[in-house]
Amino acid sequence: MFRSSSSVKSFLYIYKTSEGVRKTEKISAETRDEVFAALRARGIRPIKVIAEDGSKANGAPPQPSGWRKNRLFLAILAGLGVFAALWGIFGRTPAPATPSAAGTVAPQGAVSAASQVARPLARQVISGDRERITHPPATLFPSAAERYLAYFAEPGRPLPPATVSPPDTAAFLACLQVPLRVRTDEFTEYVELVRIVTRLKDELRAYLAGGGTVTDYLAELFKRQRLEISYRDQAEEKLGELLAGRKPDLPRAYDYWLKANARLRTMGIYPLPLPESLRTYELTADLED
Q1: Of 65, 83, 101, which marks where a domain is finished?
Q2: Given 173, 215, 257, 276, which residue has the most CB atoms within 10 angstroms?
Q3: How many domains does the chain have?
């Protein structure tokens, strides 16, 4: 099946050269995943990838400006509601400003102008560099509690290693008092990861407001993640069975791989990679269509 020219879009990607110079260039592809794959092949690690026409990375058309304004207005209202709730629960008189080493007064909670409060994002598979997603820098999250929640950001992602224990309840309660922030020039994968953890913090906050405990919430995270992993494991096992034997039924196996991944995607679970034994078959099938 050959690619339709109408589905190809122009993307802008931002990266830094080996000399540290920030550059913006253009590339054509159908999806952002294809952009990342093409750039990886060229040895480029982009800071950010955006569609030039303003549409979403998954191909959704640009939204009208009025819709964006309404969404922004609703987001502001929701943000004010969350802030009011947090202030009611955790509000306290701020500590006085402390003098800096230079003798000037540094305001409490001052942040860099190059960062912004992370907006919540529903749990989903994050597109881009898997190494960045599964091994983010420790500095991405200010607290151990947030770093622990990051293990549950993507549906079906492996559970935390047995060597990693959750922080105590006090650490989770403390992290709820401080909103996560992201740098404006941060890698897209890190931005999405921080936004999803922000959503998990909102989820934990609501769980506590309903009378639950941190321990119970973490147990629910494990239960949900194990269920998602089981769905993916079952699909992977079935695909392995179809490819077993001396003469596997490649058309049937390939069809199952497509259908299984379609189902996993609807559940928000990371899809199965294409087995090596099906790569040649896929290429042949594409050329014959």
Answers
A1: 83
A2: 257
A3: 2
Cβ atoms of 44 and 23 closer than 8 Å: no
Is 216 part of a structural domain of the chain?
Answer: no
> Does 155 map to a domain?
no
Separation between Cα atoms, residue 149 and residue 195, nearest integer Å: 12
Residue-wise pLDDT tens digits, 98-157:
433 333 333 444 444 488 999 999 998 888 888 888 899 989 999 999 999 999 999 988
**Cβ–Cβ < 8 Å for 124, 155:** yes
According to DSSP, residue 63 is labeled P
Helix %, strand %, coil % of the chain (to 5): 50, 10, 40
Helices (H), the chain: 32-41, 65-90, 130-134, 144-149, 169-175, 188-209, 214-243, 250-266, 276-288
Spatial contact of 250 and 278, defined as CB atoms under 8 Å apart: yes
Collapsing DSSP states into helix, strand and coil, what is residue 27? strand
pTM: 0.56
Q: Which pLDDT tens digit goes with each residue over 237-261?
A: 999 999 998 888 888 998 999 999 9
Tokens representing 204?
């934990």
- Distance (Å, rounded) from C-alpha 267 to C-alpha 55? 23
